[in-house]
Amino acid sequence: MKQVSSFKGINGQLKSFKDEVENAEKIIYAGVPGVCTPFAELLAYAVRDKKNIFIPDIEIEKAREMKLTDYGVELGSSIKAEGDVLVLLGGLAMPRIGSEVSEVKEFIEKLVKNKGKVMGVCFMDMFRKAGWDQQIDFDSIINADIEGYILE
Q1: Ramachandran assignment for 30, one of left (phi > 0), alpha (psi -120 to 50 degrees), beta (any other)
Q2: Integer Cα distance of 129 and 54 in angstroms
Q3: Which residues are within 8 A (CB) of 17 and not within 5 positions of it... i.e. 6 or more apart?
Q4: 85, 61, 65: which is closest to 75 by C-alpha?
Q5: Model confidence over 129-148: pLDDT tens digits?
Q6: Contact call for residues 31 and 86 (beta carbons, < 8 A)
Q7: Order of strands across the sheet that contains 72-78
Q8: Could you tell me how far CA 111 lies from the centroid of its own chain?
Q9: pTM > 0.90: yes or no
Q10: In whole angstroms, what is the distance from residue 122 CA to residue 128 CA?
Q11: How far is Cα 21 from Cα 16, in angstroms, rounded to an integer?
Q12: Of 3.30.1120.10, 1.10.10.10, 3.40.50.2300, 3.40.50.720, which CATH number belongs to 10-143?
């Protein structure tokens, strides 16, 4: 994979994501509960005109709709996991809390079945650090780096 564009900040990340899923009607996010859930909600808010679904880890039977409420995007009722885009969130590739890449590849086969798009969204280059960019046929990966400081 090669870099095709760059962005700055959260707004840039959300705009890049929105552009990548422009033609999708339904988006499925899969990630580690607690760690990835708020990022999936943030991404889903950016594309709130589409149907959004969250799967904790890679447990398809636990899929939940993501719905817009007065509080932002929240997880709703159980739903069948069907979509045009599968977004793997970086927490899945994190050591000790994520999933095995072989299991994720099986998960992708169950959901995508040679149709649809497979995307990665991560921070700190997690998919490349884990080697998943070489093992999973991503259509695109959106990576953002986080820098920060504390003032007192």
Answers
A1: beta
A2: 24
A3: 43, 46, 47, 121, 142
A4: 65
A5: 999 999 999 999 999 998 89
A6: no
A7: 72-78, 64-69, 51-56, 26-31, 85-89, 117-123, 140-144
A8: 14
A9: yes
A10: 10
A11: 9
A12: 3.40.50.2300
